[in-house]
Amino acid sequence: MKFEELKSQIEERMKDLGAEVSGKEPNVVDVKVPRERIVEAAKRLKEMGFDHVKAVTAIDYPNERFEIVYVSSSYSNLELAYFIVNLRTDLPYDDPKMPTLLEVWPSVLYQEHEEHDLMGIVFEGHPRMGERLLLPESYEGIPPLRKEFKVKTEGINA
Amino acid sequence: MSLEERELEVLIGPQHPASGHMRLVAKIDGDIVVELRPNIGYVHRSVEKLAEVKKYLQIIPLVERPSLADTTANNLAYVMAVEKLLGIEPPPRAQYLRTLLAEINRIHSHFYGMGIHGVMIGSSTAYMWCFGDREPLIELAQELTGARLTYSYIVPGGVRRDLPQGFEDKVEKVMRYLENRMPDYFDLYFNNPVTRARLEGVGVLTKEDAIKLGVTGPNLRASGVPYDVRKAEPYAAYPELDFDVITEEAGDAFARVMVRVREIQESIKIIRQVLKKIPDGPILNEKYMKMIPPNLRKQVEETGHIKFPGVFANLRVPAGEAVARVEGGRGEVVFHIVSDGKMSPYRMRMVTPSFRNVILFEHLTKGARVADIPAIYGSLDYFPPEADR
Predict the structure, then answer these.
(1) This prediction's pTM
(2) Backbone phi, then psi, for B74, in 5-degree steps?
(3) Torsion of the alpha carbons at B288, B292, B294 and B295, rounded to the nearest 10
(4) Nearest CA-CA distance, residue B234 and chain A, Å
(5) Does B307 touch chain A (CB under 8 A)?
(6) Is the confidence metric ipTM above 0.90 for this complex?
(7) pLDDT in tens, B220-257
């Protein structure tokens, strides 16, 4: 399958969801949807054969927005396995909540949990919200992956 | 007695229950696991956060260390993501050298995993043998890179060192040793009725579940999914090499071990091809090579050891976003880097194979016997520091 062909197929499937589809040659397609449409968008990608998520990345743009990126690809269709589809959405900074994609992609169980733990994103419907994953249970304070959390360094310039 | 009264909570760990610090919280009913939850994070070192305050070159050792035995994959995937942003390609010889180290590393990483698995099911011999036989590979890597495990060999635009003199002969010696040695493992360990009884039919992962849960590496291929990044999105010198993706159908603990054994044989095949086909030429991109001062460049040409051009110290990476993936010994390593054009990444997401596979602890142990927990754990080649990052 060609890059352009896949891109236009995705565009076609996502048209009514208000998706912005862009891409980077030779194999990365970006699909951006509003958060209320993301579950539906994920379902459609899964129907196309994008059956698992390789990474969930939450990006902090302070006082502006959070961007959540689901890096997905295919195991069951080796032709699609060459491609990576990044399903993205923006969350308002003061309300970093979105529905979990666990029902569509069970592979996000730990990844969403990690972004909850370290970035403070709430995935509604995820069974482990409020639990710690990597941080100690006693941790309180700013989620450490946020830009607001400054790393204290040691040495001459500290 | 009601089930609640019969149910017992057993804590396994967190003081190094097997291959690193983690805790397994198991609810058991007699000898049967009702539910098991991995409790991770004991060796979390905040690699992603630290990457935001370190310079691009300093991040290379940072991303390697969590994986200990399987570092080349992290090194390579990270550098590939940076190269995508820089728009830089390594020269062909460097591509072959990257492949060479990656395959040497794959073999010793598989031995590491199999050795830990051996000792977890009570075979000290398998442990000793695997750790002994890992040594010749580590020595090869050391001769090539100067380090035993954390090589930092792969840099943007190429690799740090060329092949040492007489390296091909040493490699061939080690490959022959391995080929002669592998049958011993079958005689003593893999075909041993005790090993078979502990592993066959234990911790079965179906193909559908393997796909659904997004697991990776030998654990995925042992369930019959022929996905290997080296074929799916070929990188380094893999497009020019002939090798097979190893799969097994059973999806049990034994199949997972067998995938690793057969991959060792496949890696031997790849290493021989690399040394036969490796083209002459530079090992660092021309653009960077030109930036090395002339007197040092002469030294680089004579010794085959790269002196970093000054630009590396404060490497600026153009704004943008890149995803890179590499098939490591334990599975697929994914780097997702967002750059804003400064000297450190704006955001670096690093997803390691162990973090992808941690979900299997809860999935595979449900309804298993307590005694099978180590057999299942070991078969996953799970490494806590790699998962926690």
Answers:
(1) 0.93
(2) -65, -45
(3) -140
(4) 9
(5) no
(6) yes
(7) 999 999 999 999 999 999 999 999 999 999 999 999 99
